[in-house]
């Protein structure tokens, strides 16, 4: 990793792991430790917010430069030349998380037993930044996680369908971000670095029904850019036939503030309006919502929300 980008990330409280990975505490981990408030992933799927390891094995590597992305994009790296071992990444990511949460131990609002649990993460969310599928040993990484009985989530932009197709070990839950209803908006908002970005995203959507794991389509909604077009989104969703759909409002944070405005954050009412229209178009229903995160969950079977074994 470039020394300059490493310095920027560390200033933003990332813990850098090896050559290309990183860990950063989620806002909701702190909320759970201090106030007992869970994130929407706990409310929807049953994971423990305070035991969630938010990380990426490709923290500064991506195939898109989305305008709504919160990370610094000035020194983006398009490949990972010196890959670290999956077990090393997992071990060091856990150690990094343990170091980052140290400050919560002395806070009187933190329950000692909950803090003790937080020191042993049981959930890995490959969703921090970058495009995790650029790490060629991602399948082995998930295998290492599963051997330790850790639940795994992967968030991908879908531009590398061949990676998903060839993975022997998939995450327990696979998110594909669909942030545009058509190619024109995709090119303007997601700013792909590959000419085949849109076509590859569609290949990923077509691939999802054949994958043996839980699948979710994430719509990151940016007011003034991609909210609406429910019929076009529905056609994309129907290709993928996901277990769930998550319309979620963009948040005006990080470096996205240099590219967006506060007005680009849709209200929860706007997200809900979009969700109701999309539910009608896709034959689904509203299963849940979490207002603080501006997110709604769509699906057909509420009994499948909680992940078994948690």
Would you write up a description of this structure?
The chain has 310 residues and is of the alpha/beta class. It has one domain: Aldolase class I (TIM Barrel, Alpha-Beta Barrel). 34% of the residues lie in helices and 16% in strands. The chain has a ten-stranded mixed β-sheet, with helices on both faces. A hairpin with a 4-residue loop joins strand 9 (285-290) and strand 10. The radius of gyration is 18 Å and the shape is globular. The two termini are 35 Å apart. The mean pLDDT is 95.
What structural class do you assign from the helix and strand content?
alpha/beta
The coarse silhouette is globular
* Number of structural units classed as domains: 1
Main sheet makeup: 10 strands, mixed
Name the CATH superfamily classification: Aldolase class I
What's the CATH architecture? Alpha-Beta Barrel
Q: What is the helix/strand order?
A: HEEHHEHHEHEHEHHEHEHEE
Tally of helical runs: 11
The total of beta strands comes to: 10
Q: Strand order within the widest sheet?
A: 1-2-3-4-5-6-7-8-10-9
Proportion of helical residues: 25-40%
In the CATH hierarchy, what is the class? Alpha Beta
User: Strand percentage, roughly?
Assistant: 15-25%
Q: Termini separation (Å)?
A: 35 Å
CATH topology: TIM Barrel
| Average pLDDT metric | 95
Rg estimate, integer Å: 18 Å
Low-pLDDT parts are: none
